[in-house]
Amino acid sequence: MELNSEEARQTPRVRLGRRLRRLRERRCLSLRQLSERVGGYSHSYLGRVELGEQLPSEALVHTLDEFFDTDGVLAELLELAHDTLIPDYSRKTVNKEAEAERIQVFNSSVIPGLLQTPEYARASFRRSLLGESEEQINERVAVRVKRQRVLDREQPPYYWGIMDEAALKRPIGGTQCMVTQIQHLLQFSTRPHVTVQVLPFHKGAHPLLGGALTLHTMSDGATIAAVESFDSGAPTETPRKVLELTQRFDLARSLALTDDESFDLIHKYLKEYEGEDDS
């Protein structure tokens, strides 16, 4: 996809919107006419996309690329726009996610991102991203859901997720949201390439309190590590630092319940939330 100098200075979402408007106008179509031609997506929705106020869904972009015969140009712009929704400090790690042979994650306060339901992710974003509109939050949820497809591939990476028990105890999004989230977590934990463990409260202190750690093992054996807090983080590939962070992960894993014990504890929390929902 080649861009002129003016386009290169614009954000991806603005470039996408302006490109769509030019394509529409070349066909001499109004927004309402385009809406009718592409399966009933509302003209107001298309208008917001053209103005850069809202990102289109992947389904809409696929439909538009086919309708205008643009060889995936709009899809490429959407990919770039999605990339800007990922914090700078974690972008490199996230971009390597799809290439990883093994993904290991520890999270001390919430369910790991690749195991979150859309509702749980949305509720978490609402509380943590101050000042963002509902549309902006929905865009971030869409990016997270898209990332989760890595675990649905025919040959997915090995995934090892450890969470502090606090992630189960804290009712993010309310009781019904937690019921759905924990059901989803239990279903994922039965997949052959997925291991889920819980580090219980009674084990006390551990080397990853208050943060999140991600380790990506690549096909050449190299490991990329990333440490995150609520609004900052840093990736590293320095061998000594990666070794230190891997040791921290291994120590946390040694304190966690086994996968069977973790399944039982997660199921216990499900029953508690279901009981609250019925009351």
Keywords for this structure?
Cro/C1-type_HTH, DNA binding, single chain, 279 residues, 2 domains, Endonuclease, Chain A, 434 Repressor (Amino-terminal Domain), alpha/beta, 13 helices, six-stranded mixed sheet, 53% helix
Description:
With 279 residues, the chain is an alpha/beta fold. It has two domains: 5-83, lambda repressor-like DNA-binding domains (434 Repressor (Amino-terminal Domain), Orthogonal Bundle); 92-278, Endonuclease, Chain A, CATH 3.30.870. Helix content is 53%, strand content 13%. It has helices at 5-8, 12-26, 31-37, 43-50, 58-68, 73-84, 88-97, 118-128, 134-147, 166-169, 175-189, 239-255, 259-278, and strands spanning 102-107, 158-164, 194-199, 212-217, 223-228, 233-236. A six-stranded mixed beta sheet has the order 3-2-1-4-5-6, with helices on both faces. Strand 4 (212-217) and strand 5 form a beta hairpin. The longest helix is centred in the C-terminal third of the chain and has 20 residues, at 259-278. The protein is globular. The model has no long low-confidence stretch (mean pLDDT 89). InterPro entries: Cro/C1-type_HTH, DUF5753, Lambda_DNA-bd_dom_sf. Pfam families: DUF5753, HTH_31. This is Helix-turn-helix domain-containing protein.
